[in-house]
Amino acid sequence: MKITVVGAGNVGAQCAYRLAQKQAGEVVLIDVVAGLPQGKALDMMQAGFIEGFSTKIKGTNDYKDTKDSNVVVITAGLARKPGMSRDDLISKNAEIIASIVKNIVQYSPKAILIIVTNPLDVMTYFAYKLSGFDHRRVFGMAPLLDAARMQYFIAEACGDANNIYAEVLGSHGDLMVPVPRFSTVKGKPITEILNPEQVNNIEQKTKNGGAEIVGLLKTGSAYYAPGSAAAHMAEAVAKDKKEVIGTCCYLTGEYGLSDVYIGVPAKIGRGGVEEVIELDLLAPEKKALHDSANAVKEICEKLTLPK
Ligand code: TXD
């Protein structure tokens, strides 16, 4: 397996490092900044002698080194600063995604593409359209991260970090859709364990999870959990795990939605998105998902694809 991580910044480096630890395949780390991916790759391989892995990590600025990658994780792009919304990043990141996708299509026409760059749902749609790949081979990482954040806030409220599951659907933004009814502690929905105020508090904190970290860091956005989440998804493909993971997927009628990328559970394996899982949603949950998808669609309709 050959896994390329595009962008050797905070998220890309954490993703590459986690992939090396997981021994999911050889890793290529590419960036436009000369020396940055090469330096980080050397540092990581030297850490391998302490951590006990011997994964080959190639740092490069040349797409020729990414040739015939099986999986490509795209993390390149601007990150948020305090006061910015994810949508403020659109035009610059669209340009960056366009240049990267062109290279990936040329050098790795059979790859599975995992998009991380924000605004996530819009950039994933954009990458899909530009690549011309089958939609199952292009998906985005965010719902897994958003669910991990919700798990953290549930653990905080319950004082118990064991056996927590969280379900988060929708876009990676203000219209994210945490679903408390399907979020459980030891198999019991949190709606049966916590009071409505506590549940509402968890939902709000989850939606604000990224902004909270941006506000504290001041110079960029979260990267440990995002990088780990991206590596987890790439590993699921590389090892053909067929694991059900919250994924930003292209919908073709599931949940009554089509021609949009939005967060839903999906089975992830060597084929990419091998199955979209349809949860039995109540009317208000379905409406929240549709509102979220419609907001993403509206932005995508305004994006012009470069020639
Ligand atoms: O859940 C999620 N999907 C996310 C998304 C969670 C966290 C961060 N999220 C987004 O990932 C964030 O809003 C950004 O759009 C990306 C990357 O965030 P990161 O924190 O890694 O940003 P950095 O540290 O600034 O790194 C970006 C790197 C940097 O090294 C640039 O030189 C490089 O991207 N870059 C490029 N690499 C290759 N090719 C091109 N064209 C390029 N342009 C910039």
Description:
Belongs to the LDH/MDH superfamily. MDH type 3 family. Belongs to the LDH/MDH superfamily. LDH family. It comes from Candidatus Saganbacteria bacterium. It catalyses: (S)-malate + NAD(+) = oxaloacetate + NADH + H(+); (S)-lactate + NAD(+) = pyruvate + NADH + H(+). InterPro entries: L-lactate/malate_DH, Lactate/malate_DH_C, Lactate/malate_DH_N, Lactate_DH/Glyco_Ohase_4_C, Malate_DH_type3, NAD(P)-bd_dom_sf. This is Malate dehydrogenase. With 307 residues, the protein is α/β, with parallel strands linked by helices. It has two domains: 2-141, Rossmann fold, CATH 3.40.50.720; 143-300, Alpha-Beta Complex (L-2-Hydroxyisocaproate Dehydrogenase, Chain A, domain 2). The protein is built from ten helices and 14 strands. It has helices at residues 10-22, 36-51, 90-107, 120-131, 143-158, 190-193, 196-207, 209-217, 224-238, 283-302, and strands at residues 2-6, 26-30, 57-60, 71-74, 112-115, 138-140, 164-165, 168-170, 176-178, 184-185, 188-189, 243-252, 258-269, 272-276. It has a six-stranded parallel β-sheet, with helices on both faces. Strands 7-10-11 form a three-stranded antiparallel β-sheet. A hairpin with a 2-residue loop joins strand 10 (184-185) and strand 11. The two termini are 32 Å apart. Residues 6-12, 31-33, 36, 75-80, 89, 93, 96, 99-100, 116-118, 120, 141-142, 145, 172, 220-223, 226 line the site of 1,4,5,6-tetrahydronicotinamide adenine dinucleotide. 1,4,5,6-tetrahydronicotinamide adenine dinucleotide (TXD) binds at residues 6-12, 31-33, 36, 75-80, 89, 93, 96, 99-100, 116-118, 120, 141-142, 145, 172, 220-223, 226.
